[in-house]
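Hey,
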Amino acid sequence: MATAIVVLACWLQVRLHPEAEHAVLLQNIQWTLAFAVGAWMAWSGYRASSPELAIAKRHQFLGLLCLGLGQVVWDVQAYVAWTPFPGPSDLVFFPSTVFFLTGFLALVRRDRWTQVLADVAGFALGAGILTLTLYLSVAGESRKFQLFVLCSYPVGMLSAGACFVILQLHDRQRWRVGSLALGIGICALGLTWMSWNLGQLKGEQQLGTMTSLAFSLSALTIGWASYVWRSHVDTSASYDRLCEGVLRQLPLVMVALTTSTLGLLAVGDTVPHILRTPLVWAAFLVLVFAVYRQTRSLSERDRLLAAERVVLESQAKLQHLAHHDPLTGLPNLTLLRDRVDQATETAGRHGTKFALMFIDLDNFKEVNDTLGHDAGDALLCTIAERFQSLLRATDTVSRQGGDEFSIVLHEVQDLAQVSSVAEKLSELANGYLSIQHQEIPLSFSVGIAMFPDDASDFAGLMRCADTAMYKAKAAGGRTYRFYDAKMNDEAASRMRIRSHLARAVEKNELSLLWQAQVDLSNGSFCGVEALVRWTHPELGQVSPATFIPVAETTGHILPIGTWILHTACRQAAAWLAQGLQISSISVNISMVQFIRGNVELQVAEALRSSGLPPSLLKLEITESVFMHDKDTVLETVDRLVKLGVKLSIDDFGTGYSSLSCVQRLKVDAIKVDQSFVRGLPGNAGSCAIVKAVIDMAKAMELAVVAEGVETQEQCDWLRQNGCGIAQGYLFSKPLGASDFENLWAHAAWRSASQNRLQYG
């Protein structure tokens, strides 16, 4: 501020007294002081500069320093009264424009170098021919070299200013006080030089003019701006569009400069004819730059539009992926939630109902394990298509992931309408799908919740539908269940069981009970079955019928099954060592354990570690294992048979395959389910079924074991109809190991049993 006051004071003194002897001295002092202080401020700005602006600020300091040193040289020349043009001072003045321009060019990124250079070159050429035309119109007898030097000052400074503006726009720099002052200062210095040179060529140069003051103020402005200039990038879309719009106007600036030049040449006759043609060609070259720049702008615009289209398409795809399952294309959980929220709002407003169905595929993992993930994916896609074909266009089918689907039935009238859809789904669940040339049996369970009867929001409806789905699974699967409030208690109990079951083996909460199998021909023991029990410190005694299905669903059956197998083999081996002549020990193998647990390796390890002879171990499997890949199951069975163990089909007649499976299996026995035994001898249907099983087993030379025998009448009927082995409460309830040892060893019991069988 003090420097500006001194500069103004010197200028005012010269303006008021231009004829005074000290006027020239004061004007030179004014310029020298302004250039020196401007250079000092630029130097201070360079020292405190951020790394990205350091080069530009250093060049600004050097440019102002050249102005200051050039002015000192001019002062010496004026003092000795030797002021040729061009002279020594011009050699020092001239590099200032180069420093300003190269400082800004050093900030240009490589990917924008060609474009920025073309813009600056086009502007510089346009400004150059316009300046030269102006100077030629008043140059008189000036030499060409003098005109070149005179033109170089304004053209160089204006080009530097244009480069700065273009760079700011390309880099999306916000115009702050420092950047505005820097651009204005450099352009003002260029225009000041142009005006000064015009006056000098006309011979009208006077002391104390506004032009002389403009030199000083421009230098001070540049120095101060260089000190405060900072980078302020704005990445907003609106500012990006603004900068691109301004950059697209640069060709118009080039055209304007060219038009001005051609206009001056057309209306004036002071430019020598010999120079008119080069100037016209130079103007034409500027137009070429403008066309090139406009072509680049249009090309860039097209590229940006294409990129924008790609971005919009990508956003649309991302939006679709965010709301749809990538495999089946169905709405995912996010979109399902939105659809249910919309249905809730609509139904609440109109007083209508809608249903939410939760569907879980049974044993889907086995499809992946046996046929591969490609087959599993194909199965999911086919099921998705089948679901959609069964529903209205207004309904929603969703896949949450894995093997879980949901269906929203909008605007239903009553439960009958929902039941009709559920029946169609049940029919589908009892069919087959052909995947990779293999027939895969479908099996899924459906749980249904109604709005507003069961819940009033998405989370509540999903919870109710999930609970109902587990109820359908508990009913054997391939069916559907509507939500019932009583299911909440069952669901809560199942959750408690699930959480505690995970550590049942680790905490030694499991135990085995033993139930004898009796030869009905003589009443002697011929085998024993190991039955697992779970006693929890909080839940108490948990029935196997309760925790085994949960264990199979969660996968906890794998460690539990391994524990049962090893414990049973060790106990049987211990009894053999004690002299108990047990002819066989039966261990149940879960379907999940059989399919997923490398059961033959577990059996081999249990036999090896316990020392139990393989012929004494009988594995009981259910027919449900044949719902999976039959070939894989049969291969597993063959490997088990090669180990020397025996196989029995448990709960025969309640499962999937019956005779077709037995014909292909190398089993030793068939176990009649207690649900059939319970109806003996009064229920004609039960009698017919059991008699058919016994006859079939005899024809295939298989042993028949009847479980759940509780009355003497049942025992008599079974013996009379050819059943060889029985077990149940009539003979013994499941006992602990020590009680079972006593029972087995007690000869009096065996004698009593034999008499009871013979005479009872």
